[in-house]
Specification:
469 residues; Gyrase A, domain 2; Four Helix Bundle (Hemerythrin (Met), subunit A); Rossmann fold; seven-stranded mixed β-sheet; six-stranded mixed β-sheet; 13 strands; 44% helix; elongated; binds guanosine-5'-triphosphate; binds magnesium ion
Length: 469
């Protein structure tokens, strides 16, 4: 047991303003005895022997302050059935900050006189004890603090997700994956003199790539809040025949949507998923917007409009080889409420004037020149899509990270170790080197949940709490 946990700590755990109740919390081996010295139960009951989770009515008598009969209810939790896993007594009394302070003072000085080894708690010390005793992990301890401080619904939701262990589970899954790969690699090292191929270099590479992808995804999610599993909706929107279907096919690398030189080819919305550096996008190809010609087309356009409302990102496509002014007229600026990327397509054919012909209202968006035919500009388009997400331009209100700075930084370090192991594998270095990097990666991941910690890190984390928590 850590020496500092031998003592009993006490603090007022309600805020200092006036309220109906004030709560004093005491935790540690002498918690019950410290209260017993000053408390008189309303019925003949020995609070030292009551079962855990008992509440006891009664009064405090503070002889030194000449104040008697302060009404209070005690909530008694026996070791290990409490937040700190120690004996805990919560004193609920009248909501006067002065009274609570007087009571706390009396308990501390009485405890001091009777050598009960009780003292005022440090900031966050109750939660620190809960962590040290294995009640919660470090991410949950940090989440507790975030919940107390949360200033928005989004932040509160993210902190609660963290408290329930979502983050720890994800980290654990990632760690298990690395540990399992490491075990295979180490077995291969141990049996290298025998002629059995336990894991091939290619298998190692594939597994490492998948691990790297998962950590990157988690990092990106941590920067962008929670991305829905559906992916980020990106709609291809524009006039008929500008090359929307050709672009979705080129981006996906497969023939998903029908392409033809006849305007009005696409009638239904075609959806497919595209992953860019671990971020999942749902691409939607739509019918080109045009003056409504027949009922089928106008219905298709209705569908485009409703998809437009659901999308997170609008990829506004122009035919760079056609009249830019005329195409712009079909697009209602009011519809462009989300993130917009302007794509000037068919740049393989393009006359040079297409950008200058683009009305000024569209020039405030990022512009990419592409060719669905040659693939030019597609990488840049993907880059911009990624940036919209990573730079947090998406859905500002829910843009709350599920990780804090420390957790993100630690995740980043473990990603570096995995990248190093990939490098070693690529350079055909011996399996020992790869295993070494992977061990560093798992140790680093362990830091997130607090499996490996130093006193410095703990002090820093818990000092940010308030006293009594
Ligand atoms: N040269 C060239 N032709 C292209 C390019 N992109 C598309 N096209 C051609 O333009 C025509 C229309 O392409 P689609 O992809 O069907 O256009 P769309 O925007 O989906 O058209 P609708 O579905 O009718 O709204 C086809 O003949 C394509 O081959 C490009 O980058 N360069
Ligand atoms: Mg089409």
């Amino acid at each position: 047991m850590l020496p500092e946990i031998q003592d009993t700590i006490a603090a007022i755990s309600t805020s200092s303003g006036r309220s109906f109740h004030a709560i004093i919390k005491i935790s540690g081996p002498e918690a019950i005895n410290c209260v017993k010295d000053l408390f008189v139960p309303a019925t003949r009951i020995d609070i030292g022997t009551v079962p855990t989770y008992t509440s006891v009515d009664g009064y405090f008598h503070l002889a030194e302050d000449c104040i008697n009969n302060i009404p209070a209810v005690l909530y008694i939790m026996k070791q290990p059935y409490s937040y700190t896993k120690e004996a805990v007594v919560e004193i609920h009394t009248l909501g006067s900050p002065l009274l609570a302070e007087m009571l706390l003072d009396a308990i501390l000085s009485k405890g001091f006189q009777t050598k009960r080894n009780i003292r005022l708690s440090q900031p966050g010390e109750f939660t620190k004890r809960a962590f040290l005793r294995g009640r919660i992990d470090l991410t949950q301890a940090e989440a507790t603090m975030r919940i107390i401080r949360a200033k928005s619904d989004g932040e509160l939701k993210a902190s609660i997700a963290q408290l329930t262990g979502t983050v720890s589970q994800q980290i654990k899954r990632m760690k298990d994956e690395i540990v399992s790969l490491c075990a295979h690699i180490e077995a291969a090292i141990d049996f290298s003199d025998q002629d059995i191929d336990l894991i091939s270099a290619t298998e190692i590479m594939n597994k490492l790539a998948s691990i790297k992808k998962n950590i990157s995804r988690l990092l990106i999610q941590s920067e962008t809040g929670k991305i829905s599993p559906e992916g980020i909706g990106a709609i291809l929107y524009g006039n008929p025949n500008v090359g929307k279907s050709s672009l979705i096919n080129a981006l996906l690398g497969k023939k998903r949507a029908i392409v033809s030189e006849i305007p009005g080819t696409t009638r239904d919305i075609v959806e497919d998923f595209l992953e860019i550096e671990g971020i999942r996008f749902k691409l939607m190809d739509t019918a080109g917007i045009d003056e409504e010609k027949d009922t089928v087309i106008s219905r298709a356009i209705e569908k485009t409009q409703s998809a437009l409302e659901r999308a997170d990102i609008i990829i506004l496509v122009f035919d760079g080889n056609a009249d830019m002014g005329k195409q712009s007229k079909e697009i209602k600026l009011d519809d462009l409420t989300h993130n917009v990327i302007v794509v000037i397509n068919k740049c393989d054919l393009q006359k040079n004037s297409s950008f200058s012909e683009l009305p000024i209202a569209f020039k405030r968006y990022p512009v990419v020149h592409t060719s669905a035919l040659t693939g030019e500009g597609l990488e840049k388009l993907k880059e911009i899509l990624k940036e919209i997400v990573t730079e947090g331009q998406l859905n500002q209100s829910s843009n709350v990270s599920i990780f804090n700075v420390r957790q993100r930084e630690t995740l980043q370090r473990s990603l570096q170790s995995v990248q190093q192991s990939i490098k070693s594998a690529k350079n055909n270095e011996s399996y020992e080197f790869i295993a070494l990097d992977l061990h560093t990666a798992t140790d680093t991941l362990g830091e997130i949940a607090g499996e490996v910690t130093t006193e410095d890190i703990l002090d820093k984390i818990f000092s940010e709490f308030c006293i009594g928590k």
